[in-house]
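B., you asked whether I could sanity-check this one before it goes into the benchmark set. Here's the sequence:
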Amino acid sequence: YNPYGTLSDTFLPRYDNVTFYLEKGQGRLAIVDSEEFSDKMPKLDKKTSFIMCFKAVLFFPHHFEDILSVAQTFDPDIHLRRDELQAIQQQALKRFKIIYDDHLKFVLDQGITLQQATVVRPLNPDKVKRLEKVIADWLRLQHNDKYMTPDLLGSDPETAIAKFHQDFLPRFLVHLYVFFTRMLEENAQSYEGRASSMTELLRIRTLEFTKQHACYNTFIETVCAIPRDMLKLKYETSFLHYHLLDLILNELVKEGEIAYYNRELGYGGRTIHCIFC
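And here's what the prediction gave me:
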């Protein structure tokens, strides 16, 4: 099971079954599960040939032409299915772009180096003001919801919003930065506390968690200490915080403060929250 398989319409290949290594500066692939390996050219029917080509393109979409060239030695007519294979390539590249290319560009644009793997930068005042406006609009919408959160802001909604921005939002953002930092430091421990390559840097700066994660629970419990007189809530304060967190993270993507956010990455009841930062 790999939740990143949902980022495109094709399945995610098992890279743990592919062993890469360098030989005299050249990248090579080791043979895995070689019990049935033969160096003789197999005779393949067209369906099997296409499936093998399909899998190869999923593994290595940037090597499409090389794969197609080799595949023609098995099936001279494979070029007739070029459009189908290119569609598969584009789906694989779509996943590569989200997971690697866009994240790498974000890290480089932000000037985050290998030595800054766990850095978290606060929002500048202008972005906080824009965030306040988005949150105010959202709070008004919740206030007018007659079923879920009726009269959320009490008898004086605008005063309640101003109090919310003054008293609560700054604390929420501080604890959000603490949460990010703890998650980053936890990831960095897998790499002896620092990144030694850009791939490791991106891995450290990929935050994956569920609602059961200790750092996430600590964050929610901390910000749930919101005073009861600040908002007139029909439900527990956690209801507000879960949705507020989702709103803020989506806005941070729009503001270019994080590269990617998905609160339901994966399948069915096994989804995770995922942030590229």
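One thing to flag: The radius of gyration is 24 Å. Otherwise nothing jumped out at me.
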